[in-house]
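Record type: monomer structure entry
Structure origin: computed from sequence
Chain ID: A
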Amino acid sequence: MPDRKYIIYLLGTAGAGKTFLTRTLFDWFSEKKLDVGILNLDAGVRTIPYAPAIDVRDIVDINEIVNEYNLGPNGAMIASMDLIATKIHDLMSEVEYVDPQYLIVDTPGQIELFAYRSSGKFIANMLKENREPVSVFLIDPSLVLKPEGLASIMLLSLSVEFQLELPQIPVISKADLIKEDHKERLERWIEEPETIGIEIERGQTISLSKQLGLNIIQTIEQFRNTGELFPISATTMHNIETLIAAIEREFGTRDDFYE
């Protein structure tokens, strides 16, 4: 249906690769001759490898925020999101003016803006008005070198999904940087989530930490199929088609993507 419109939020911790994936997805949609645009929601970014159709830096000047309130980088980012929330109708007017069928939203690396603060949820919910939403949660591979790391970041992804109430596709980014032996462990943890608990139990000596790790795994198994997680690389294009397929399953747009 040509009148349907969509929004794709790219979320994740700082350095997870959201901006590079934004460009990769934009290039993929453009090659398919689909109507796509990018919204840069990071007021603090200096340079970006794409030309955003909508740029929040045109609405909020983070340098003015830093100087006016004497804030550091993280405090300024929080303040900028709060300010964006007060100017949400200006931002929505920009989106409506450009009006792409597919809108890709590149978000700041301060994931707490979306996991815990009301301004992040408010902005995300306002932007998805009249658009079918999906979020992609990028996991930096350096955070999943140990089983407890994977458990913790998966719990964070659940927290973000719960807070934003958006369909979420979790992926491990930068697959090209994962060493082969760790790749095999990750695949085992994903395909057999009970092995995560076994390794946590084997490696932890403090009973409280061990019990907490095991409880986190049980929570993840209750609310999410760990097998849904998969690695991608925006550099080598590894599993990018798999990610696109997961997005189109949420949207039901396979005919549009592959006609």
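Annotation 1: The mean pLDDT is 89.
Annotation 2: Strands lie at 6-12, 36-40, 54-55, 102-106, 132-139, 168-172, 230-231.
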